[in-house]
Amino acid sequence: MLEAEDRKQGDDVSEDHAVGGIAADRLRSIIERIERLEEERKALASDIKDIYAEAKSAGFEVKVIRQIIRIRKQEPADVEEQETLLDIYRRALGM
After folding, report:
1. pLDDT for the residue numbered 22
2. Which helix (H) or strand (E) holds 19?
3. Residues 93 and 70 reside in one and the same domain
4. What's the confidence (pLDDT) of residue 77?
5. Containing domain of residue 68, as a range?
6. What's the rounded Cα separation, in Å, for the pair 18 and 2?
7. Does residue 24 contact residue 2 with C-beta atoms inside 8 Å?
């Protein structure tokens, strides 16, 4: 399949097959894209950390905010089931 793609690209076939039939340019492109996304992820993580710091300085409890975010990602039925079980366990322990 790579050979057919190489033929479509023209005369660069010899450059694409640098080592052992691996399309070096394609591999390099994939790796560079992953590296760019990793950098973006790092920047986003830093932004999120800054927002948590902002929330903390505004008097909000960061642990609770993290819990709310985790809950909002779940399906409503799953949240309801967990809350019901938590309530049952608390009552069983006299809490």
Report:
1. 82
2. strand 17-19
3. yes
4. 96
5. 61-95
6. 13
7. no
What residue has token string 């760019």?
36
- The confidence score (pLDDT) of residue 17 equals 59
Residue 91 structure tokens: 């009552």
Q: Are residues 15 and 32 in the same domain?
A: yes
Q: What are phi and psi of 10, to 5 degrees?
A: 105, -140
Residues 2 and 15 in one domain: yes
CB–CB of 26/8 below 8 Å?
Answer: no
Tell whether 38 and 67 lie within a shared domain. no
Residue-level pLDDT, tens digit, the chain, 95 residues? 445 455 555 444 445 556 777 889 999 999 999 999 999 999 999 999 999 999 999 999 999 999 999 999 999 999 999 999 999 999 999 99
Extract the tokens encoding 40: 């973006």
State how many domains the chain has: 2
Question: 30 and 9 in one domain?
Answer: yes
